[in-house]
Amino acid sequence: MATKTPLQAKSQLEVKSILVSQPKPEHSPYYKLEEKYGIKIDWRPFIHVEPVPEKEFRKTKIKPDEFTAIIFTSRNSIDHFFGLCEEMRIKMPSSTKYFCLSEAIANYLQKFIVYRKRKVFVGKRLINDLEPYFKKHKSEKFLLPTSNLGSKPVQNFLSSMKIDYQEAMMYRTVSSDLSDLASITYDVLIFFSPLGIQSLYENFPDFKQNKTRIAVFGKSTSKAVLDKGLTINIHAPSKEAPSMSMALENYIKEVNGED
Q1: How distant, in Å, are the alpha carbons of 31, 34, 112, 204 from that of 43?
Q2: Hey, where are the domains in the chain?
Q3: 88-136 residue pLDDT tens
Q4: pTM score, two decimals?
Q5: How many other C-beta atoms can be found within 10 angstroms of the C-beta atom of residue 43?
Q6: Which of 69, 163, 186, 241 could form an S-S bond across to 19 if both were Cys, CB 3.0 to 4.6 Å?
Q7: According to the model, what pLDDT value does residue 13 have?
Q8: Does the bond joining 132 to the residue before it have cis omega, within 30 degrees of 0?
Q9: How many CA atoms lie within 13 A of 96 on its CB side?
């Protein structure tokens, strides 16, 4: 009988416990996997968003109400923009124009303003979708709320169009405190971004993979895992498994001997 290499042996271990490095959603296909295969799936965000304190933001000398148009790239950018405005006691003029990357972002904006279509311009998903609106309103003075990670594709597009804009860091994506997980092990860890890997090593600098399987979503996450010398056991998206839940189920079927 052929002897299995350590990697082959590790890949054939049953999966009984999984940690997903994201907040727990209300609905998820993972819940069906738990029930179907009798496994335990825990949820824990490895990263979270923090606002830039008002005192720190004031040092930038940026005054939101001095801009005639705001570009929103996410719900977070909306939350933290209006959060800072409230702390600074700034009320945006009713004439302000808002440029949103998607309909979902534009709909979320209704929580903070009286929504009028003539002042809100909506893209399908990408900044390029808004090009006709930028051309029509090129004389506006734009503010782009961002996180510490920036928004390079948006900035590059605005610069290429010679748009008058100012970037304003209003929130940060940072590693969460995972110290309570120090003595807990899981059969599978699931990551969806390089930041999750960064958080893992910031919390546990001496992390060793050992028998833990690593599941990753996307090329940039895969690169972050491989750069740390870790082994990727489950990967998505692929032709066979366009979603992580499908890739996970295929793997569980294989190693747990389930049909």
Answers
A1: 11, 13, 30, 18
A2: 49-174
A3: 999 999 899 999 999 999 999 999 988 765 689 999 988 999 999 999 9
A4: 0.78
A5: 15
A6: 186
A7: 83
A8: no
A9: 22
Q: Is the pLDDT of residue 11 over 70?
A: no
The CATH number of 49-174 is 3.40.50.10090
User: SS3 sequence, 138-182?
Assistant: CCCCEEEEEECCCCHHHHHHHHHCCCCEEEEEEEEEEECCCHHHC
- Please tell me the distance from the alpha carbon of residue 172 to that of residue 17, in angstroms, as a whole number: 31
Question: Does 81 score more than 70 pLDDT?
Answer: yes
Could you identify the residue written with the tokens 């979503």?
217
In this structure, of 2-16, 60-74, 174-188, the range with the lowest mean pLDDT score is 2-16
* Structure tokens belonging to residue 4: 């299995």
Yes or no: say if 147 and 168 are a contact pair by the CB < 8 Å rule: no
Measured between its terminal Cα atoms, the distance across the chain in Å is 26
